[in-house]
Amino acid sequence: MAHFDVAIIGLGPAGSALARQLAGKMRVIALDKKRQCGSEGFTKPCGGLLAPDAQRAFIRDGITLPVKVIANPQIFSVKTVDVAAGLTRNYPRSYININRHAFDLWMKSLIPDVVTVHHDTLCRKVWREDDEWHISFQADGLEQHITARYLVGADGANSLVRRHLYPEHQIRKYLAIQQWFAEAHAVPFYACIFDNTVTDCYSWSISKDGYFIFGGAYPMKDGQARFEALKAKMTDFAFHFGEPVKSEKCTVLFPSRWGDFVCGKENAFLIGEAAGFISASSLEGISYALDSAELLSQVLQGQREDANRAYTRSTFSLRLKLLGKIIKARILTQPRLRKAIMRSRISDIRVRD
Fold first, then answer.
1. Model's pTM, two decimal places?
2. What's the Cα-to-Cα distance from 82 to each of 7, 193, 202, 203, 338, rounded to whole Å?
């Protein structure tokens, strides 16, 4: 039974960044559901926009994006739609349009060979025994078992590690649904859609590589019906759909209070969405995945005696920033406040006919 300094569960942006930053400094193993390459196997349903905070994380690491992960077109505004009020506004945004699955595979490819990586792998169970973490997983058709001093949950909304550490912890969740259509709009666009009769969260659309993606976050119970109801309404706002090419679903977390952010304990840590580090106002998580991975990397390399306390303290500013996103989300999802803001036309860019 092999022993490691750090075991990372999940190689999305958070896990991949941490594995790369710890490579050669600690003995690291990483387990991931995705295959090593190609479009087969698990893919993360995601609109695929790289926000400015995520761009800054790459600048700090001296990393540039390869052309293979960048999608077309690049759009510099978001069309915001209030369905009930019948209002549409255009606000400037500096996102980079990316192919999310290609981006995730590229992030994994940056991990040096000194890190032991198991692809297409299912983590079965984690437990603590004799001051070590034990991890049971299935890889290459075999049941395997390793131990580690530190355990890191980078395994997203349905984190196995978070459920083990905090079995009573409850955080608001939505069913994220999106469909891909052949692009039928003369001018491609991004959109953010609010309709409180459908969801108290929000919906979105993105033009990407000849496709039009339409999706949103809906209550878990009847999300599909609500999604279809909103699609029917959007024809009044010049949204064109046709027959879907593919449909995707996943669970997405929606932090709504300070206590929704959980950092870990007993030499186990949570980063990215597993920790609740996702924006309540946009559901953007890549930025906070990269930032939390960087903070944890610094803590683990510092060999602190109480690493959990150090990590919790180091993420305070990040959690405070996300608390601001919760406040922003409460404002944006209040129909009267949202309507007043949009009617004011503050920051709105008027588009010529």
1. 0.94
2. 45, 6, 10, 11, 8
